[in-house]
Amino acid sequence: MKELRARALPGIVGVLLALALEALAVYLFVRGATALDEGGPPLLGHGGVDLVVSFVLLAAGTVVATGLVIVQPNYSRSVIFLGRYLGTLREAGWWWTVPLTSKPAVSLRVRNFESEKLKVNDLRGNPIQIAAVVVWRVIDAARALFEVDQYEEFVKIQSETALRHIASQYPYDHFEDESTPSLRENTDRVSQALAQELQERLAVAGVEVLDARLTHLAYSPEIAHAMLQRQQAEAVVAARAKIVEGAVGMVEMALRELQRSGLVDLDDERRAAMVNNLMVAIVGERAVQPVMNAGTIY
């Protein structure tokens, strides 16, 4: 169901019409009652008709007054007459529309929904805790009212469902393959995917998703310690690899400069020994204790 624009007049029109009917009803009632009391010449059937018409006009005035409605800023009022949707009022103000209608209000303001910390499995099956905040608003009041049952609860359930699905599509972190997007390293990409999936799920309820962001991401307590050790081990390996790479470059430069300057002429065995000593001195975690050689190296 698509939202329609409801027809309405300013509220003062309905008030004046209701007051006119009520005033005419009072006038006819007084005239009819007076005619009956005096017992004079027939006046609309000795006042009986005046009384009947006055009650009808009184009821009509009351019915007219039921068409009055106030629309608050950033709210809408959907007009429903005997189960039939007639349209929606969006402009703030005092309006008079079809009498005897129900007019449920729907907020059009921007709202936030923050999910609880959900325990899900990532792409590799690791249990993680994840939470997100969703910024949304209603853009179609008719769909929000008639296409789903309790649209606010619908937004909550669908947001948590989409978050669970997105979390299962990515690993928490990439270990061997850095080209694979992860929840921790690619938060913008994950948030964009979450917002897109939410928009597809909530479009049926006339809801627009303005933003969706992860607010909490962590391993579950039962594996958090093991994963921390793994991350620390990976950091140590990466650091050692960088040190070795730099050490190799420094050894190459040292041998190249020695060969260029012609200070020493090293055979393969002595060259291997120097490379070993330099690598130990550069890569070793402890300070190297130098050994002074007073004789020849051959």
From TrEMBL:
One of its GO terms (biological process) is proteolysis. SMART domains: PHB. The chain crosses the membrane at residues 12-31, 51-71. SUPFAM superfamilies: Band 7/SPFH domain. The keyword Repeat does not apply. Residues 66-231 form the Band domain. GO terms for molecular function: peptidase activity. It comes from the Bacteria. Keywords: Hydrolase, Membrane, Protease, Transmembrane, Transmembrane helix. It holds the Pfam family Band_7. Gene3D superfamilies: Band 7 domain (3.30.479.30). The keyword Transmembrane helix applies. This is Membrane protease subunit, stomatin/prohibitin.
